[in-house]
Amino acid sequence: MKKIVGIWGSCLLLLSGCSAIQNMDVLNPAGSQAAEQYSLIKLSMYIMLIVMVTVVVLFVRFVHKYRARPGFTPEKHQENRNKKLELTWTILPFVLLLILAVPMVKSVFGEEKQDNTGAMKVKVTASEYWWKFEYPEEGIVTSQELHLPKGKRVVIELHSKDVIHSFWVPQLGGKQDLIPGRTNKMALTPEKVGTYQGKCGEFCGAGHSFMRFLVKVDSQQDYQQWVNQMKKENTSSKLSAQESEGQNVFKNNCLSCHATSGVASANQGKEGPNLAGFGDRERVAGFMPNTEKNVLKWLKDPKKVKPGTEMPKAKGLSKDDYAALSAYLKALEK
Ligand code: CUA
Question: What residues does the Cytochrome oxidase subunit II copper A binding domain cover (predicted)?
Fold first, then answer.
């Protein structure tokens, strides 16, 4: 009995750790699809609990009742057949599986049948090891931070440039694979303003665990403001001397792969992540806090920070060049 209590205790302790992973929580849904999945998780948990408690109680009872003791002959209690019992343990699991299956099948096919007219579209492209987010209706592009308006159904089109990745935002619903040469679709309806963690849910190579992203769910108004800012071309009129210096370094080293404008046409042929509004982003390289120290760490040796990344080390840059580059990136604000 002590052992059982011990096992249960450790399970609860492990579960309590889940809440420590901030905003990564399937058990704290912030979107309607995630809420539906959560109710299905609860249903299956309750059914499993009933089964487990029943089995444990019967097990303990029988172990005690038929224990070896002086004057006890087990043979006397053995039965060859018991039709009633056999029927019970055949039909009961069938009924339990039915209770699980009906709402789950209903939920999966119900979601597929949902009307997508009036839904917003976002095209997600995964590459080793970053995320591109395109908004075809707005003609804008961003990377690593997906902005969505609250309360709007969004149909997400999933593409991969290289290997199989998987798009997963536990609090909003998911997950769905991104497969090269194929277009997958999923829908999300975020219901709460906030920042949610997203990650690649399929092992895809050395940098897999760093393939993170954020989903920023804004109010309709804030979202529209963000879209308007992204549509504006960046101007260099407000740059300080160091930032202009950094802009030159950027032009010579980074511009062939990275656009600093969120306008889709400005991103054509750019193989690297878009950097519009980089100064406002929470993270650098998708997973580190966006501090000067981390930006420099990333610029100076990308492959050390994120194994397998295609981002090359810039050659022949001085300490001042790096500092200027970092200052310029910081100046890329909304
Ligand atoms: Cu991409 Cu794991």
Answer: 117-229
Q: At 62, which amino acid appears?
A: F
> Is 222 within a domain?
yes
The ipTM, to two decimals, is: 0.99
User: Are 183 and 129 in a shared domain?
Assistant: yes
Ligand 1 contacts CB of residue 306 (under 6 A): no
Nearest alpha-carbon partner for 203 in 172, 168, 158: 168
Cα angle 262-124-114, degrees, rounded to a multiple of 5: 120
Q: What is the CATH number of the domain that holds 287?
A: 2.60.40.420
Q: What is the pLDDT along the chain (334 residues), one digit of tens a residue?
A: 566 666 666 655 555 554 444 555 888 999 999 999 999 999 999 999 999 999 999 999 999 998 989 988 888 888 888 999 999 999 999 999 999 999 999 998 888 888 888 899 999 999 999 999 999 999 999 999 999 999 999 999 999 999 999 999 999 997 899 999 999 999 999 999 999 999 999 999 999 999 999 999 999 999 999 999 898 866 556 788 899 999 999 999 999 999 988 989 888 889 999 999 898 999 999 999 999 999 999 999 999 999 999 999 888 899 999 999 999 999 887 6
Total domains in the chain come to 2
Collapsed DSSP state (helix, strand, coil) of residue 150: coil
Domain range enclosing 27: 22-47+89-231
Nearest atom in ligand 1 to the alpha carbon of residue 164 is 1
